[in-house]
Specification:
alpha+beta; 9-stranded antiparallel sheet; 5-stranded mixed sheet; 23% helix; 36% strand; globular
């Protein structure tokens, strides 16, 4: 497809930034939305698929042509707290220093005993941080949320599921009552935003897809169904056919910044008309 209006991508963890960069090169200005393949235990059992193949390392791209009405959203349903720090030494998704000190020292000070074992020995801290996103504010004012995933033990680095630019101000975000409600309001807002965007632009959708971060699913636990069946969301969706996916990362286009980004701890809606 020479001129898609939007591209929906599926990639495996760690490959997303490279895929986005390649799409930007070959399809400049085309918005990208998507979700990263996941598995049940971070064991590398994730896969992406196309009409012809299934791969544990590949990428799947779907170009949406002009004959299909399309609207999309990707939201980080959080508010800023007063806590802010600077990522003073980074490389890709790995942060070595925060405010000029070892990165894990800040995380231990912030989260305390909940991460003490990982601080001492290294390891994943996904459940401990699933309700505590770290945001980066773009010049447009849009905030890209990131999931702090792991601590490096004696090496004292921290790993995220999205790239952290050196010198970036990191905003500690608050999830409010989102987890206890299954993020019902966020789902409803994601639907409204998607319906107002793109070539759909307020028209009636005929099908939809929910992109729901796996970290958010960890945060809500058994409340996930409550969010999906809540009046706030169900009253808007009605009998619209909807599929859903939980992901280890989300990709989205920032309308204000005019930029495709890798992000985490987000919920979005893809609508077709």
């Amino acid at each position: 497809m020479a001129s898609p209006q939007v591209i929906f991508m599926g990639a495996t963890p760690g490959a997303e930034e490279g895929v986005i960069a390649s799409i930007n090169e070959h399809f400049p200005g085309v918005p990208v939305y998507g979700g990263t393949a996941a598995d049940d235990a971070l064991a590398g059992e994730w896969k992406v698929m196309s009409a012809d193949a299934v791969s544990s390392t590949g990428v799947s791209l779907v170009g949406v042509g002009s004959s299909v009405k399309f609207g999309a959203s990707m939201l980080g349903p959080y508010t800023e707290t007063e806590k802010k720090v600077i990522a003073t030494k980074t490389e890709g998704r790995r942060v070595f220093e925060i405010d000029g000190k070892p990165a894990t020292d800040f995380v231990l000070e912030w989260l305390g005993d909940d991460v003490k074992e990982a601080y001492d020995n290294g390891g994943l801290i996904l459940p401990q941080t699933a309700q505590k996103p770290v945001g980066i504010k773009k010049p447009s004012g849009e905030i890209v949320t990131n999931h702090l995933a792991a601590l490096g033990g004696e090496e004292k680095y921290v790993d995220f599921f999205a790239p952290i630019p050196e010198g970036a101000e990191l905003l500690i975000m608050d999830s409010g009552d989102g987890p206890s409600t299954g993020y019902a309001d966020a789902l409803a807002n994601a639907y409204d935003t998607a319906k107002s965007q793109g070539s759909l632009a307020g028209g009636p959708p005929t099908a939809g897809m929910i992109v729901y971060c796996g970290g958010m699913a960890i945060a809500v636990g058994d409340k996930l169904d409550e969010g999906l069946t809540s009046d706030a969301f169900a009253s808007k969706v009605g009998d619209l056919p909807v599929l859903g996916m939980t992901c280890f990362g989300e990709q989205a286009y920032l309308e204000g910044q005019k930029e495709n980004v890798q992000r985490n701890l987000s919920v979005g809606m893809i609508l077709f008309g």
